[in-house]
Design brief:
- The chain contains 4 helices and 12 strands, in the order H-E-H-E-E-E-E-E-E-H-E-E-H-E-E-E.
- It has one domain: Clam (outer membrane lipoprotein receptor (LolB), chain A).
- It has a 12-stranded antiparallel β-sheet.
- It has about 210 residues and is of the alpha+beta class.
- The longest helix is centred in the middle third of the chain and has 15 residues.
Length: about 210
């Protein structure tokens, strides 16, 4: 599998949060119930995001921003609007990449790692990512955020992903930030803002036509 393609898939879904005042979560069961209820009640999400991707080989940070649309059960679109126009569309069966009008399509079912990444992305955005059969999970919190720190158990996924940190708002259990560490030391920071939950999103939003 192309290293570049793996980067394109996982780059938008991680961060490095430079805040170490997290402590062990006091009530894990209450947190899990809140996340489950939020995920069950969430039919769609619209949000803006800011992203910083650090590449250790270049020793610099690439900044970008755009919008994210999610609609149950498995429609997800990331649209980058700055500094370039670029979009990634996942629909449960295919991953489509639109690079300023040039569209490439990849079948998810033909690759286990594609399927793993698709499920991870959808579940992370929706908040339904606490799958202990696939991850070892540590639960932390500070005064504003919950943190679920996930370490993959599966060897194939571990070869691409070292650790995933998902941050949730304490006020409504929605995802605030998502973290993914790569083994090479690279990381991506993505911050959600202007979130709108359960607004109407037409299916046409999830198309490059």
């Amino acid at each position: 599998m192309s290293k570049l393609l793996i980067y394109l898939l996982i780059a938008p879904f991680s961060l490095l949060l430079q805040n170490d005042n997290f402590q062990r979560m006091e009530d894990i069961e209450e947190f899990r119930k809140g996340i489950e209820q939020m995920a069950a009640n969430t039919k769609s999400i619209k949000a803006s995001f800011d992203q910083s991707k650090y590449l250790s080989i270049l020793s610099n940070t690439v900044e970008s921003s755009g919008t994210m649309h999610f609609k149950k059960p498995d429609l997800l679109k990331w649209s980058y609007t700055s500094p370039y126009n670029y979009a990634i569309l996942l629909n449960g069966e295919k991953i489509k990449i639109n690079d300023e009008g040039k569209v490439n399509s990849f079948d998810i079912k033909n690759s286990k790692i594609f399927k793993e990444l698709n499920d991870l992305i959808i579940n992370s955005v929706q908040g339904n990512v606490l799958q202990e059969e696939r991850f070892n999970i540590s639960y932390l919190e500070n005064n504003k955020l919950y943190l679920a720190r996930l370490s993959p158990k599966e060897e194939q996924l571990k070869s691409y992903i070292k650790q995933i940190d998902v941050y949730f708002e304490k006020s409504d259990y929605t995802v605030n930030k998502i973290q993914l560490f790569e083994h090479e030391g690279d990381y991506t920071l993505i911050t959600f803002h202007s979130k709108t939950i359960n607004s109407s999103i037409p299916d046409s939003e999830f198309s490059f036509q």
